[in-house]
Amino acid sequence: MQLNNNVAEFILLGLTQDPIRKKVVFVTFLLLYLGTLLGNMLIIITIKTSPALGSPVYFFVFHLSLSDTCFSTCIAPRMIADVLLKNATISFNECMTQVFTSHFFGCLEIFILVLMAVDCYVANCKALHYRTMMSHQVCGVLVAVAWVGSIVHSSAKVFLALSLPFCGPNVIDPYFCDLKPLLKLACTDTYVTNLLLVSNSGAICTVSSVMLMSSYIVVLHYLRNHNTEGRKKALSTCASHIIMAILFFGPCIFMYTRPATTFSKDKMIAVFYTIGTPLFNPLIYILRNAEVKNAIKMLWSKKLISDDKR
C-alpha cells in the first residue's frame, strides 16, 4: 500500500512559529513532561514496593500510570525536540509508528479506566463477592484483554493510515501524527475512512464513557446505605476516578466523535489530553488518596534509614 505514496516524510507545524514563543513552549513542556515522568514513576515504584497497596484497584492504577507514562513518551519528547528546529519533519514510517503507539496507549488507558470503574462497582455493590470476582487471576486476565484490545484498535488505525495514498502536500498542522490530520493530506476521497475512524475511536470513547459514568452513578446511589466512615472513603475513591475519567474522556470524545473538520481549539485540546492528562492523573491520585500518600512516606522513610546505615 505504501507504494502508492509519493510522500517520504511529513512536515510538523508545531504549536507556534514564533522564536520567542518556541523557547517558552520548550521550557514549559519539558517541565510538564519531567513532572509526568516523576509523578507516574513515583506511583509505579510505590505500588510495586508497598505491600499495603496490593488490592486490585492499585493493580489497575499501576497499569494506568504505566500507560500514562508511555502515552506521553510517544508524543512529548519529539514535540519538545522539534520546537528547537526551524523545520520539524517526521518520516513516513516514524509517523505510522507514532499513530500506532499513541492510539495503543491511549486506548489502553480507556480500558484501564473502565476496569477501575468495574472494580469500584464490585467493591461497593458486591462487597461479599469482591475477593472472588476481583481476584488477582481475574484482574490479570482483564488487563491482558485490555492490552490485546488496544493492539487490535491501534492496528486498525495503522491499517487505515496505510490504505491512504499521499501525493502532497505533506504539512501536518498539529505537532504529532494522528489519523485525522492525515485524512486531510490523502489524495483520495476519505469519507468512508472518516466514518470508520469515528465508528472506531468515537465508539470506544463514547461507549466506554457511558459505561464508566453509569457504573459510578449506581455506586453513588448504593452508597446512600453505607455508614458515614465507609461512605466517605468510597466517595473519595470514586471522586478520584471520576475526575480522571472526565479529564481524559472529555477531550477524547471531542476529538474523535466528529467529522474531519478543524476548530481553533483543536491544538489546545490535543495538548491537554496528550500532555496534561498524563500529568494530572498521578497528582490527583497522590493528593486525594491517603493510602498512596502513606505508602510514599513509608517508602521514603525506608530509603532514608537505609542511606543512614550506609
Automatic annotation (TrEMBL):
Its main location: membrane. It holds the Pfam family 7tm_4. The keyword Repeat does not apply. InterPro entries: GPCR_Rhodpsn, GPCR_Rhodpsn_7TM, Olfact_rcpt, Olfactory_Receptors. It is found in: Membrane. The chain crosses the membrane at residues 24-45, 57-80, 100-122, 134-156, 201-223, 235-256, 268-287. Residues 39-285 form the G-protein coupled receptors family 1 profile domain. Keywords: G-protein coupled receptor, Membrane, Receptor, Transducer, Transmembrane, Transmembrane helix. It comes from the Eukaryota. It is a multi-pass membrane protein. Putative odorant or sperm cell receptor. This is G-protein coupled receptors family 1 profile domain-containing protein. It comes from Rangifer tarandus platyrhynchus (Svalbard reindeer). The lineage of its organism: Eukaryota, Metazoa, Chordata, Craniata, Vertebrata.
